[in-house]
């Protein structure tokens, strides 16, 4: 997912990889590529359809994107907040 194998280059991809490994333990399976694709697809479906998220007000990602009453939270990066604080 990242070009230079730098975890800071794509934090979202690293977060997803971590969740797949820690919560779904996909790195523990020693299967062929086709079986692994099915396992990852099922994990992503569970993540999006069944797993509530604190950052989504305890809604699943699918529920959050379908509703229009709650605002989707966004987070500033450290660098962007430092730039605004140091601008004179």
**Domain module tally:** 1
Structural class: mainly alpha
End-to-end Cα distance, whole Å, is 37 Å
The proportion of residues in beta strands is under 5%
Overall strand count: 0
Low-confidence stretches: 84-88
From the spread of the alpha carbons, the general shape counts as flat
With helices defined by DSSP (H or I, 4 residues minimum), what is the helix count? 4
What Rg do the Cα atoms give?
17 Å
The largest β sheet comes out as: none
* Mean of residue pLDDT values: 80
What series of H and E elements makes up the topology?
HHHH
The residue fraction in helices comes out at: 40-55%
Describe the structure.
The structure is a single chain. This protein starts with 10 loop residues before the first helix and ends with a helix. It contains four helices and no strands. By secondary structure, it is mainly alpha-helical. The chain has one domain (11-86).
What are the key terms here?
88 residues, mainly alpha, 0% strand, flat
Give a short summary of the structure:
The protein has about 90 residues and is mainly alpha-helical. The chain has four helices and no strands.
What order do the helices and strands come in, and which of them pair?
Layout: H1 11-22, H2 33-49, H3 61-66, H4 78-86
